[in-house]
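Ticket #4471: structure export looks truncated?
Reporter: QA, pipeline team
Priority: medium

Steps to reproduce: submit the single chain below to the structure queue and open the exported record.
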Amino acid sequence: MSDPNIPNSPASGSDGPTPGAGSLESLSQQERAAVAGIAKWWWVFLISAVIWAGIAFILLQFTTNSLATVGFIIGAMLLFSGIEQFMAASAAGGAKWLFWIFGVLFMVVGVIALFNPLRTAASVAASLGFIFGLIGILWALESIMARRVNPLWWFGLIAAALMIGMGIWLGNQGFTEKVVSLLVFAGFWALLQAFTDVVRAFQLKKAGQLVASAPRQPVG
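Actual output as written to the record:
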């Protein structure tokens, strides 16, 4: 039985606050508009998920087309990294020239990779053990630096050790094994990206619905 002394008690039949709307009520009109503006593009992430799923299917076929696809992905990532460097340069101070140098370098290498996808993928596969080892070292350093603010920092250290171990193992394998490992790694990464984009799409759609249904903040 509800307590008559408690107003808007859920059991009394009165309408309670919309789930998730409490935090949205405090948003300003400008912030609501920003959320709504982003949320209306939720379907773009679904399209991205379909594309990534298709890429994963191609990669896991373990054919020449799979290797070429890896080369195209690497080239595209380098091009995007170059664009990011140019954007960072616009906000940088005295070191702006450094961002421009790296931006041009990434763009040039990215274009070369797009025009030579098979050779690019083969080069990456040949040095995959070194790349995995380098990633593992970076993960270990990040985990150690975050140990004061992250109580689960040692998870990152375990992941780093596994990555370094995988790099050492790949370094002792033949070229064929390295190519297969590269395709498996890239394929599952593409699948994970597809799943992540699906989740983001529906999160954005839900956020837009909550903003639209949340009570507006009184003016004045």
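Status: closed, not a bug. The export was complete when the record was re-opened. Leaving a note from the reviewer for reference: The two ends are 38 Å apart (CA to CA).
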